[in-house]
Amino acid sequence: MFPKPQASLKPNTYAYETVPLVKPTGFREYDARWLFGSEINLMGVQALGLGLGTLIHELGIRPEIVIGHDFRGYSSSIKQALALGLMNAGIKVHDIGLALSPMAYFAQFALDIPCVAMVTASHNDNGWTGVKMGVNRPMTFGPDEMSRLKEIVLGGMAQAREGGSYHYVENFPEVYFKDLTDRPKLKNPIKAVVACGNGTAGAFAPRILEALGVEVVPLDTELDHSFPKYNPNPEDLEMLHAMRDAVLASGADVGLGFDGDGDRCGVVDDHGEEIFADKVGVMLARDLSAIYPQAKFVVDVKSTGLFVTDPVLIANGAHTDYWKTGHSYMKRRVNESGALVGFEKSGHYFFNTPIGRGYDDGLVSAIAILDMLDRNPGKKLSELKDALPKTWSSPTMSPHCPDEKKYGVVDAVVKHFEGLAARGETIDGQPIRDLVTVNGVRVTAQDGSWGLVRASSNKPELVVVVESPVSEARMHDMFKLVDGVLRTHPEVGAYNQSL
């Protein structure tokens, strides 16, 4: 029997080499994330694979799985440990090698395999690792599956079985390449900065976009898992500013930035100005709702209020549903509701049939943006952006808060605003227009200015976003209001970025 995992082990000891280390907090709401070495060791990853295989059998799913890994110095080793555990659980493993997360999701369809486990830390800093998992394509795990997996792994309940095997899938990126490029080229010339932050997307994105007729200006597309310039995260201002500089220097029409595992796309316009992903979503929703009348969209609670107030979307009969932040929650909601697209402020876009297969793929998102430009040859991206009603929005801001404390803090903040609303009290002298508590709390004042507080699903942080359709000053007012509530909780630390 494989040893039962421990929550804490001292490195460089006999126990560390003979006992699985799996810190319980690594099991997040919809995927798994650990600091490799201090929170999980290779035996711990093996225990995770054994537990995942056990869960697959428990769910009655055909015991076959696609695995892949992102470009980090340790990801291949972690994937091999995961595969060993899966095979020990009687699972037939199909390894597609170095891959983007959406390439692994695509492989479920292309190879007709029900399950997926992608080894990636996504946009997290070096040192982190994790696994994105699913057994019902195109969905990935949500809280129920993650809770059961945690119970199996930490409880030492995993069971070894016969029948496991390993198969390496040769040249699978070519299958993915053909899937995205087997379509007409763009009709009009488009010059695009393609930024990859030296992450995994650099191996695939430039070639795919060039095949569609894009004039690619590469930016940090060489693979380098030390991430020498900045972390590949197109939600961070450092990467967006590098894209801005490259767009202005090259005269490009657009800057497209991909995160570490390629499931998100960040955008900079022809003036070098970053467009937050929710505003890009409104632009795409305008474009697509003109082609697909009465289109339904799903957006996360961090996103702009324009999805329900924009006059073009209203005229096109578009309907928008605000839902929980998180790629697994959004993916499930899009597929269960039959929405055309799901837009998440972090840059995860979920294109459903006939555009995509319902999972998040940064390259599919980039192609949709390029198609939008191609359908509007007389307009620059900046002009399409400026045609939106004006709002003032913050970036996603994340104050530190320990994993063990963050959900309690958010619960207290929700109760605070629910109490204000129940008593008819005002915020900044205005009545509370509405509260959305499906994921943390989104409080909206009478003038449409709003603030959001929720717990990060994959890091020891909270998430704060504010927006106002009135003025920049009102946006700052909402931030002061929300931050003032957070500062009553000493567990809440410094922000990663702030207004």
The CATH H-level homologous superfamily of the largest domain? Alpha-D-Glucose-1,6-Bisphosphate, subunit A, domain 3
What share of residues are in beta strands? 15-25%
Indicate the structural class. Answer: alpha/beta
Annotation, overall tally of beta strands? 21
What's the CATH class label of the largest domain? Alpha Beta
Strand line-up across the major sheet: 1-5-4-2-3-6
Shape: globular
Low-pLDDT segments:
none
Count of individual domains: 3
Looking at the overall shape, the CATH architecture of the largest domain is: 3-Layer(aba) Sandwich
Report mean pLDDT, rounded to a whole number.
96
Q: What share of residues is helical?
A: 25-40%
Oligomeric composition of the shown chains: single chain
* Biggest sheet overview: 6 strands, mixed
Amino- and carboxy-terminal Cα gap? 53 Å
Domain Alpha-D-phosphohexomutase C-terminal: 419-479
Pfam families: PGM_PMM_I, PGM_PMM_II, PGM_PMM_III, PGM_PMM_IV
Protein name: Phosphomannomutase/phosphoglucomutase
Domain Alpha-D-phosphohexomutase alpha/beta/alpha: 26-153, 179-272, 278-390
